[in-house]
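Sequence of Enamine deaminase RidA (YjgF/YER057c/UK114 family) (Variovorax ginsengisoli).
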Amino acid sequence: MSAGHTQPTASVSPLRIDRLSLPDSLTLVHGDRHPLGALGYGTPANVDWMPTVDAQVLLGNAPCADILQTRLPITAGTTGCVRWRSDGHWMLGTIDLDEGAEPEGLAALAERAYRDLFQAQEAAGCPHLQRVWNYLPQINGDGGGLERYRQFNLGRQRAFLAAGRAAFEGAPAACALGIRQGALSVRFLAGRHAPLPVENPRQVSAYRYPPTYGPSAPTFSRAALSALGDDQVALFISGTASIVGHETLHAGDVQAQTRETLRNLSAVIDAAHRHGSARFALADLHGVVYIRHAADAPAVQRLLAEAVGETAPLVRQAVFLEADVCRQDLLVEIEAHAVSTGTLRA
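Predicted 3D structure, token representation.
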């Protein structure tokens, strides 16, 4: 099945996504639903079904998690370096590779991570990536003459091409952020049916960036639409920053970069509306806001509140994390998701 088509939502085992506090996450009681897994923010590292993002939570916010639940029993497994959980229709996978114990370098390490990721998808019967989260130690650091983010892109794209996966049109929604230390970490959501990729008309598609950004372009779409079942559609928006065309705008100005980022998020939402009846709004996004300099977080939060109102989910339920963005001149990046009733069309 091509990435431009989706199955009817009735054929999908329903998936539910909730952003919950840590206490509510650990005491989940939702009738017959089962936790497929979660992405934790500021959460303990010892909860096996809730892999945490190794970045500091800002603004004094309490730990929370994005919880994914289904109605079917969960099977857990390990394939290569991938730990995964699946209900047979959906899977959530986790990769953590310590570079200190791996001699091959970041490009080879990223290639290995994604090679095992694709094998894990085969094992779980969930061949279509919906959303990927990548976290790299020292993302903007020098990796022996090539920036580490560019090394990562090189290895990631090699794995996609070797596996016959869509590395250009049809690539999954994704983000890549820099953590200060720790492992190369990859989290991914996959399913039985292909999502519908969405691009931003204000930006050159990331996989079409010119060679000035490295020997291999980043492998991701700006967003993806996924049928979750029960007539629910998810919009997964990739990491979004102050880029127009392929160039960074407003270098050194976090407030102007935040406003440009919001314009890009709105453009992605508008583009998503052309692919079906599901409707999304900027204010209703559940965002993760990555801030390069922790001191900038209050100003970014203030600008979000001015744009959509203090009580909007984009502000009230946002997670602010200290992290380096993929380009050294970018100070803020926002990735987000939202769920709406509707249908999809190619």
